[in-house]
Amino acid sequence: MNTIDTRRHFLGAGLAGIAGLGLGTACTGPVTRIGTATAARNLDVEKVETVTVKIPYRPAPNRAMSRELPHWRYAEIFRVFLRSGKVGIGETLLYYTWGVSNAGHIKRVLGRNAADHMWNDDLGAGLQAALFDAVAQTLEVPLYRLLGRKVHDKTPLSWWNIDMSVEDMAAECKEALDKGYLSYKTKGRPWFDIWKQVDTAAGVVPEAFKIDMDFNDTLLTAERGMKIIKDLEKYPQVDIYETPIPQGDIEGNRKIREATRVHIAMHYGNPAPQVAVREGVCDGFVIGGGASRVMHQGGFATEAGLPFWLQLVGTGVTAAYSLHFGAVLEQARWPAVNCHQLYTHSMLSKEVEVKDGFAGIPEGPGLGYELDEDAIEKFRVEKPARRPDPPRLIETSWPDGRRMYIANNGQVNFMLRPGQKGKLPYYEPGVDTRLVEDDGSKEWMRLYSEARKGPYLTKA
Q1: Topology annotation, domain 37-146
Q2: DSSP assignment, residue 244?
Q3: 10 Å Cβ neighbour count for 24?
């Protein structure tokens, strides 16, 4: 077999057993009282406290994130107080796609045994993580002991940024390398020169440093995207393409996978995981969500023998939580994406240290990390009544003088949505994008008003 065939070989005999796992309803985990009645009462939730923080982005991420995701600066920190005296911590990005807790979720666990509720994904990310941390602290074991058998002493981590300028992407890759990372994940977008981005970034890092590109299906079809697929694979640093075209395009994804040495990653669940394995449309998965969901999906990947990365997004608090899942899931072999590198502060009293691309699994009780209380007070804010959506005007320009303007319209990732419908110009060399500062002029307001209706293109 050649290299591609070897890494894609899968024993057909195992497929029947895998198919039975499917998606289904996420397991809730075994729920049992621990020890004596007195010991069980030590796990009763006496109080839950929350605080909202607004954390600054570092300069380079700020230039990019302010364009589409300024609301990712808001996180809600949870503290769960048990009768044992232990306090568990967790967090939720308030305007991420999964896991926001509300007053009803908190009411549901008050006065109840934390172990009876910690597997309930419906509670939201921050509250669920804090329950796990509090229970593990009470039992004086690392959090991963509640999840399963430890199979890894360390787990790989990736540095993440949204799509950004050529210069900023190269600088971020170099920063990641200097901080001990060996992987960088970003977005592939038609409003940046993707060829120049990769060429410049690859020039500042060694071949062992890997660059993973998430297209969010903006290559549209295998036929249209194949040149980009083949052009970028020439760089040894390029290691994974995530969702190059719509994941439901079975034939197209199979063509891409067969044509490239680069690994293909798909978000678990579309197509159904049994179909993804049987049809050979990807080399591994992206797995995230609540604890039950992560363990269920990670179990399927283990049975299938396919690697995945954990995508649990937040500050250092979430990154630390993610480490424990990396400890027990056999196929969590691709670098985890936690996005905590975006911020000026991890919100932890000590950083998650990365060396040679890996972070060690904490062995202390619970999460193994503590909050930086000074940072909590420094960045504390009132919880917004709704997702912040400040006015933004984005200009995309091409060497021939064309200009395109897009403005925020109340949607998340508003720049991407027109691209998915084929309304944006396709990938071209020389294209660049910037956030246009509101200078108070009539021209700015005119362009902003036009762009809010949809992509507004002007000629040279």
Answers
A1: Enolase-like; domain 1 (3.30.390)
A2: S
A3: 8
Residue written as token pair 């049994």:
274
Identify the pLDDT of residue 32.
40
Sequence-ordered alpha helix ranges (H) in 59-178: 59-68, 103-109, 125-139, 166-178
pLDDT band at 25; cut points 50, 70, 90: very low
Residue 443 CB partners (closer than 8 Å, separation 6+): none
Q: Does domain 3-14+149-373 have CATH number 3.20.20.120?
A: yes
Q: Which two tokens stand for residue 459?
A: 């000629």
Q: What per-residue confidence (pLDDT) applies to 11?
A: 28
Model confidence pLDDT, tens digit, residues 4-14: 443 333 323 33
What percentage of the chain carries pLDDT values higher than 90? 85
* Closest to 68 in 3D by CA, of 232, 212, 211, 192: 192
| Long-range interactions of 102-107: CB distance < 8 A, separation 24+ | 106/48, 106/50
- The type of residue at 174 is K
CB 381 within 8 A of CB 53: yes
| In the chain, domain spans | 3-14+149-373, 37-146, 393-458
